[in-house]
Amino acid sequence: HMSVVLALVQYFVNNPEELKGTLKVIFQPAEETVTGAEKVIKSGKLPHLDVLYGLHVTPESEVKAKEAQPMLEAAATRTLWLTIRGKAAHAGTPQLGANVIDAFTELNEKLRSIKLKTDLPYSVTTTMVHAGESSNIVPDYGTFAIDFRTRTNELM
Q1: Residue 99 has pLDDT above 80, yes or no
Q2: Burial (CB count <10 Å: 0-12, 13-18, 19+), residue 138
Q3: Contact yes or no for 150/86 (Cβ under 8 A)
Q4: What average pLDDT is seen over the chain?
Q5: Domain match, 88 and 137 both
Q6: Domain of 18?
Q7: Residue 67 lies in a domain
Q8: Taking a C-beta distance cutoff of 8 angstroms, is the pair 55, 31 a contact?
Q9: In this structure, is residue 140 part of a structural domain?
Q10: What percent of the chain has pLDDT over 70?
């Protein structure tokens, strides 16, 4: 993202006659955590803009190399936060507990086997796992994040 924007800035530095008006460049912090845009807006430092262009790099499976499209139409995303509760046990006697990692592993394999009948790109991806605090205790509590993405709200 940054190198594309910096290349654009360099182009206008080298070709100032091509620019009608003032170019302002904004880099969004924390884009992947979905918190950066809101922080930029709430900072009060975003100047008045007549036009704002955004950019996001997209895999070649969605937009062919050296091509661009104005937007991903109705791109849909959801994050499922999941908590699993089991029963703690000593690692030497795991049969006395209910291991949330085992439960999540089985669930994750089921999620990975989802195959939708569509030509549109989609994904089901585990993006966060946290379970256990000790290497010798079967964890009885775990939180997991699963990211779902599709091209359309209908497919979501």
Answers
A1: yes
A2: buried
A3: no
A4: 86
A5: yes
A6: 2-42
A7: no
A8: no
A9: yes
A10: 92
In a domain, 156, yes or no: no
CATH label of the domain that carries residue 96: 3.30.70.360
| Phi, psi angle pair for 127, to nearest 5° | -115, -10
Q: Tell me the whole-structure pTM to 2 decimals.
A: 0.62
Number of domains in the chain: 2
Answer yes or no: do 32 and 94 share one domain. Answer: no
> CA 91, CA 93: separation in Å to the nearest integer?
5
Find out whether 151 and 103 touch, Cβ atoms under 8 Å: no
**Is residue 36 a part of any domain in this protein?**
yes
Q: Is the per-residue pLDDT at 72 higher than 70? A: no
Cβ pair 88, 140 in contact under 8 A: yes
Q: Are residues 35 and 89 in the same domain?
A: no
Confidence of residue 69 (pLDDT cuts 50, 70, 90): confident
Coil vs helix vs strand at 65: coil
d(CA 33, CA 39): 12
C-alpha distances in Å from residue 141, one per residue of 82, 85, 90, 147 = 11, 5, 14, 20
